[in-house]
Write a structure and sequence with these properties.
Chain lengths: 285, 285, 285, 285
Amino acid sequence: MARAGLILKLSCPDQPGIVAKVASYVASHHGNLVEFAQFSDQLGKKFFARLEIHTADLDVDVEDFIEGFGTLGRSLRATWHFRRLPFKMRTAVLVTKTDHCLQEVLWRTELGEMPVEITSVIGNRETCRSAAERAGFDFRYVEMEGRREEGFREIRELLVEQKVELVVLARFMQILPDWFCEEFAGRVINIHHSFLPAFIGANPYKQAHERGVKFIGATCHYVTGELDAGPIIEQEVERVQHFHGPADLVRLGRSCERAALAKGIRYHVHDRTILDGHRAIVFPD
Amino acid sequence: MARAGLILKLSCPDQPGIVAKVASYVASHHGNLVEFAQFSDQLGKKFFARLEIHTADLDVDVEDFIEGFGTLGRSLRATWHFRRLPFKMRTAVLVTKTDHCLQEVLWRTELGEMPVEITSVIGNRETCRSAAERAGFDFRYVEMEGRREEGFREIRELLVEQKVELVVLARFMQILPDWFCEEFAGRVINIHHSFLPAFIGANPYKQAHERGVKFIGATCHYVTGELDAGPIIEQEVERVQHFHGPADLVRLGRSCERAALAKGIRYHVHDRTILDGHRAIVFPD
Amino acid sequence: MARAGLILKLSCPDQPGIVAKVASYVASHHGNLVEFAQFSDQLGKKFFARLEIHTADLDVDVEDFIEGFGTLGRSLRATWHFRRLPFKMRTAVLVTKTDHCLQEVLWRTELGEMPVEITSVIGNRETCRSAAERAGFDFRYVEMEGRREEGFREIRELLVEQKVELVVLARFMQILPDWFCEEFAGRVINIHHSFLPAFIGANPYKQAHERGVKFIGATCHYVTGELDAGPIIEQEVERVQHFHGPADLVRLGRSCERAALAKGIRYHVHDRTILDGHRAIVFPD
Amino acid sequence: MARAGLILKLSCPDQPGIVAKVASYVASHHGNLVEFAQFSDQLGKKFFARLEIHTADLDVDVEDFIEGFGTLGRSLRATWHFRRLPFKMRTAVLVTKTDHCLQEVLWRTELGEMPVEITSVIGNRETCRSAAERAGFDFRYVEMEGRREEGFREIRELLVEQKVELVVLARFMQILPDWFCEEFAGRVINIHHSFLPAFIGANPYKQAHERGVKFIGATCHYVTGELDAGPIIEQEVERVQHFHGPADLVRLGRSCERAALAKGIRYHVHDRTILDGHRAIVFPD
């Protein structure tokens, strides 16, 4: 886990020989491939892969190894990304009132379960300040009431200043402006309290109760300009019955939300996700 | 299971003392209450119950016991229904092409798992004839092409003639006319191949694939005039991943469909469901 | 939820008329039965019930109502228990090193999800002190090394002194002495990190990995003198694959442990459990 | 699906460069790798892979391609196996009394969901004859009563004569002799009606009821000389409650058994399983 290494994510048009070429490049420089997850999408004619490479025995500098891959990557018309291990992803957590998702993220971070460094917890309410500060994290209050646009500009500045790589919306009850979604595309993860695409919009647990569904759920997804429609990373469900009122669904749903968000973040920070239009390829662990 | 008995289903406005009154009526005539499932809906202010009563020691005729309950039922402004045990519900199964749901129903019926008597299998294609006849059931072909209205009139006549109490749509690919839904209200069960209310309409597995959901599902529900919106009886889900194409979802979904339909029918024929507007109260076993 | 009321738990030999008698007693004094969960065990010939009664309109003192029930209870040869609502159960949490179960309990308590008052967190290591104290709870260190018996005597004294009603073993890595199990029978809840009865004993995740199971799980159970064999309250499972090493199972298992323990405690403190020999009757919510 | 191709299964001691070497061999002959599932077991220092290769554009005969791989395979000290697509695995189904697992296998085979050709259904009772024959399959009765050894010799002869590649024990209630297990090692799949390793031995549902577990399950595994201890291919679980008696567990368990067996067979016949001592590596689809 703490061994020096690289993660390579790659997507390109499908064609014969990709695995051989990529694996051969790694092997030719004495990289040790400990995981090679791939997916050839026969419908979309695309190829996706995630490689985990131990670099202890590399015959070149890691920097050189990465640069040298470019020739191959370009010949495959690929999009690719290398990450050096070990690393911690600089992450801001945005919250409003409820703190269960925040607590889950803080707790798993402290446990070392996720390679994340919390830069700050940002709230448009003061409610979560104590939870954040008690756990030793910086809390920033940003007023949004009647100044949503300015509020988001402030958040943006903070994110840039703190070199934040990932923004987690941990039950942040504000719709992001389009310019924000674009600037941080693929780097904002939300937890939605329903089994999307069911119950889009407000009060999904109330909707779920009225519809009489037998499962409730939560959805962790990338945020795009289109509300609740971004690529899904993870979902969790729980069986419910007629006697569960809306308040029970909220209670039971919290566990789904925490579980789905925690896994979703984990997959993202371990580079186990690759965006593919409206979908996300996810190689779970 | 084969013991003589009664099932009583009851719903009424909630008020103190209902359980006492109903249970006392049963006890006063030496009925033995082996199951008393109840639900006081604190939001809707309604009371729902299902009682299973062994009648071996009744001090009156069963007929008389049932009639005598009327006084109490009316005083509670209740809707109620008695069913004598053992019984078999006369059931017609409507199909089109795919036979997996049909097979499941036939197989569980033969096994004696569900107290059902299949009156006939009715198809608007000939495809399922062999599956039905091979298992020893009557198959009726009803032409629908260009004569949907006449087709449904024919089906209606058959159902009436055969004294059918329950109509199961086992992947029957026709939308029922409103008059049919009304005439058989609360007696038509459908299996929908998605986790409703997600993916209403055509080709739900294709929709699910495009949306990149992490669970697919199936929904067993009562049919109402509003498409795919009737009260849900049972749902089943299964986890899927990015590599599952639409054909895989169809394959995996079949198991959800069979399971949800089988449980839904079971709950209905054992009088474990009570309709409550857009929802169904279900006391599972 | 905060309404004045009573919970009545009752078990007795099965016989006709119990529901009528119990419900009639409640109704005769204008108690309002909002939940009546019952189970007639046809194999064991026993009857179990949990009643939730709103007492706002009682025509007698609650004390008197409770006392008056005795005549009926004795005539049914029942064991019963009344609890007044609202209430909080005085609860001690015993821990060793890992804090994920402790955190879950503390967090749900703070959220008000469980009517629990934490009297103290007791550790045979210092590891969890900061988690407890940071959340504002009293932490007591009890040395066990080479003085297990004395350690447990100390714990017992603390529990008695603090009038503790429930002892939660939140990954407490010590086997309780028999005298302790007896003294606190039915009041000690443990979380076991396997899907019991599989993988009894040490290192269940390692065992699970070696056996190549496709699900891991956790079990919340009452503690009895017989190790890992007490009545099960709740279990949770999660699907795993061959690539999950023992460390992954530990990680994934933590979520099962937290979920199962939280539900188990909830059921217990809401009096939703009734012991029946080696089993627990559980009326979930 | 019907495209000409090869499946290659391979396991060998782990070492750097395996993926590159194997994929390069395929690419060098213009094979098109459409799936490359691999697992580097960091604990056991072993490498496992399953490749699916489209062979339409191969620059050599398939026979030659397979033979040529030997040089590489031996250099890796690998065990490997090629299968030509499309294919159907010749499969015998052994049964005793209950037919739900048999029905599931026959039905999925007829549907074309599994590339299986049923050579015969073999029963040590006559009970399943009608189910088999009605579906158009050959049924063979083998007397076992008081002649177990001879019975198994007869079965063996039939299997050999019919060139059977896979033996499915679909609730076959006889313990296989050691010589039989050895002769057909890795080619006999059993469905066990419990969530192994819990409830080994007789009457697992009764055991599960007595223990009061909250989930029941079924386990599909390879048969070895050690009873119920062979490598697990697939498991399925279902939540149960205190009111489910042993008969209910049997009923609910049947669904688990059918699901786990069907998936287990599917994984085997698609060469998605690789044996690794007491465990099976399974690449699910």
